Amino acid sequence: NPNYPKMEGSSGLQQVSCRAKGGAPGFKVAILGAAGGIGQPLAMLMKMNPLVSVLHLYDVVNSPGVTADISHMDTGAVVRCFLGQSQLEDALIGMDLVIIPAGVPRKPGMTRDDLFNINAGIVKTLCEGITKCCPNAIVNLISNPVNSTVPIAAEVFKKAGTYDPKRLLGVTMLVVVRANTFVAEVMGLDPREVEVPVVGGHAGVTILPLLSQVKPPCSFTPEETDYLTSRIQNGGTEVVEAKAGAGSATLSMAYAAVKFADACLRGLRGDASVIQCAFVASQVTELPFFASKVRLGRTGIDEIYPLGPLNEYERVGLEKAKKELAESIQKGVSFIKK
Ligand code: NAD
Ligand code: LMR
């Protein structure tokens, strides 16, 4: 009925959107651990992303409720539910991007490495599914300890003969998001205009903000440098303590994960100059993995940038970071090799 008013922003009748299923242009994305603290807001934000045509939500519990809820949002992506190990492979078939926030979070007093014993096995199983069902997908690994889970994923892929280092990215975006926020606070700037490169890894001293390379250029007093470096390195712990046993960062993490996933999808689409920091297989240092700025393209990582000039404070931080990182990487590699 042409006289029947169509509401602004509505896709119209349910029947119309059903017919359109599968037809929308865009990428196919799976979230593994979609019913968790990160998984739920991440699923919601990915459903709002116009680059996503199909969104698979997989978890070992509660994915039906999350899927039913999110599928009612009137955005383009078709949402499908997958529950339990027996549906993992169906969740993964044909995916362009797989985002993994599955695993246990920290409680006060724990380090990220304390999560290794549980999360290493979870990441191994999920990555084995990826080798079988979507070996060419880009993988965004969020589960902690990222410094060890990324090497675990690499070893699983190597074992299966599907490893492409350009497609495996440990998500360190949250630390960049925090660094932008904290630097903006100190300097009285708009956080949306601040860019802080954060390199190294994703735990304690391995998190190395390069304050000498902040954009727009800023100069910090030694006190400001100490305060900012420590706050950025301990931002995760700040949230864990504030949540007092109810988990770690979930909402800011979902925001950061979507910012990063969107960058990966824009790279896949062929956009130029998509640059973010991530923990990847790298030759930037003597370590096999390291977080630094990477350029994202049609096949994943197109270029890994060198660290650039560091000041003395950052050079000392780099040595500390490398020592701890080497152990965490080795721990992940041996978990699969032994
Ligand atoms: P959560 O406990 O709220 O959610 C985890 C989800 O994973 C749950 O729904 C659980 O059912 C699911 N899960 C467990 N085993 C699974 C399996 N085998 N397959 C699929 N799903 C499985 O935890 P959260 O707060 O969402 O955090 C998840 C992980 O992300 C933790 O390891 C946390 O440390 C990490 N994290 C990383 C960053 C980062 O910056 N990279 C930031 C925040 C949290
Ligand atoms: C974070 O940085 O918030 C995450 O790595 C979660 C944590 O345990 O701190």
From TrEMBL:
Q: Does the keyword Ribonucleoprotein apply?
A: no
Q: Name one GO cellular component term.
A: chloroplast
List of residues binding NAD(+): G33, A34, A35, G36, G37, I38, G39, D59, N119, I142, S143, N144, M253
**One GO biological process from the UniProt record?**
carboxylic acid metabolic process
**Active site residues according to the UniProt entry:** H202 (proton acceptor)
What quaternary structure, including any partners, is listed in this protein's UniProt entry? Homodimer.
Q: Does the keyword Plastid apply?
A: no
Name the UniProt key words of this record, in alphabetical order. NAD, Oxidoreductase, Tricarboxylic acid cycle
Q: What is this protein called?
A: malate dehydrogenase
